[in-house]
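Sorry to interrupt, but I need a hand with the structure work. Go ahead and set the record down below:
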Amino acid sequence: MAKEKLLGKTPAELKEIVLSLGLPAFTAGQLARWMYQKRARSIEQMSDISKQGRQLLADAFDLGYVPYRDCIVSADGSKKYLFELEDCPVEAVMIPDKERRTLCVSSQKGCKMGCKFCMTGRLGFHGNLDTAQILSQFIAVDESLELSNTVFMGMGEPLDNCPAVFRAIEVLTADWGFGWSPKRVTLSSIGLLPGLKSYLDGSRCHLAISLHNPFPEERLEFMPVQKAYDIREVVRLIKQYDFSGQRRVSFEYTMFKGWNDDKRHADALVRLLRDLECRVNLIRFHRIPDFPYECASDQAMTAFRDRLNSNGITCTIRASRGEDILAACGMLAGKNKL
């Protein structure tokens, strides 16, 4: 029988655990500091806990830490880390940008959303990551103590795994955890409404929505989720919340030649997002096998961006990172080569 994992536990839960083992209550605080502030990778490392206490903890519980198995480095400095988790590899990407170190983390083994332009979706769904497996990505990478930001934009749909993802975000932003400001965390979703409402109600972290086409019938061609959760309903929900302060919402828009890159789509996007304080990020599509579309031209992307900006929607073209190691948007699939 598998041991219960410690990673992801709150101080109150850790206190119950240490008291059940006959250890002093203050051991809970020691555990939390070692796991979340010092990024300990084993119970044995926790040197201010007595040797007997460490043995009791190790006998009864598993820390839950998962080391990475492999790491490959892009020409632009991005690093893709591979974690071997039972029946499906999972990847995390560290993206350096001047003084920032952003970790793009995964929340599921594969994905069940089936977006046609995404390599992860082609893996199928092999299960949710638990909180310890999510937090291990932050602890295992070589840059663990240098990380400045995170985006839940790796493998999987975060709002299809709310309990584990929300607990991971709690650990990241709690004073007793990593102690990060909510401004350092962004969750990306294709728009699962029940989970989205819970996230907006319970978190002050940023939100990114994968939109890709403002016309529902066209979006459905590439994104089956549109049938269950109409993008218009997603935007309508988001407009009920305040994004004029420190919390931000952005919309991810991958550009496909001849599918979503003309004035008609730009104008529809302006209408959809009118009166919402937001940003649109245009993303270059990275070719994948057996998919007929290619990326829109630089000229089309620039014209699209300028049309949105001239209509009051802040829009930028996102720089691609890690394409040469299959670490760019939509390319995570546990592989180093196509």
